[in-house]
Automatic annotation (TrEMBL):
Presence of the UniProt keyword Transport in the record: no
Keywords: Coiled coil
One Pfam family of this chain: DJC28_CD
Name of protein: DUF1992 domain-containing protein
Domain of life: Bacteria
Source organism of the structure: Desulfofustis limnaeus
Keyword check for Nuclease: no
Upper lineage: Bacteria, Pseudomonadati, Thermodesulfobacteriota, Desulfobulbia, Desulfobulbales
Domain DnaJ homologue subfamily C member 28 conserved, chain residue ranges per copy: 8-74
Coiled-coil features, chain-numbered ranges: 60-90
Length: 121
């Protein structure tokens, strides 16, 4: 039992495949990418999608990117003074993230991670 909408969709897809305007060979046998973000609340998904399509990211994502960049920079920096400076920036950024979230992300809340950072220094 198809609804009218499903029938129309099937006909248009079949027509597009026959015309060659719909190419399926690139996706054949592969799962389609999931564009859903499980961490975004349901009531904000549409707004986040519009912002993402416009080239904007949520502040939390921007901060996480900066955290990853700083962690990478700390691991590659040879100068102890520069490394300490970057670690201070990282700690401030993690405190800002903590203020926005219910679950803590600060280094002192993750002793194993903190120990690994200190060992690298």
């Amino acid at each position: 039992m198809y609804s009218a909408l499903a029938l129309i969709a099937e006909q248009r897809i079949s027509q597009a495949i026959e015309d060659g305007t719909l190419r399926t060979d690139g996706w054949r046998g592969r799962p389609l990418p999931m564009n859903t973000d499980p961490f975004v609340p349901e009531d904000l998904k549409m707004a986040y999608k519009v912002l993402k399509n416009s080239g904007y990211l949520p502040p939390e994502v921007e901060m996480r990117k900066e955290v990853n960049r700083l962690e990478d920079l700390i691991s590659k920096t040879e100068d102890a003074h520069q490394r300490l400076k970057q670690m201070k920036k990282l700690n401030v950024l993690l405190m800002k993230i903590d203020q926005c979230r219910a679950r803590p992300t600060r280094l002192d809340h993750h002793p194993d991670y903190y120990r690994k950072i200190v060992e690298r220094l």
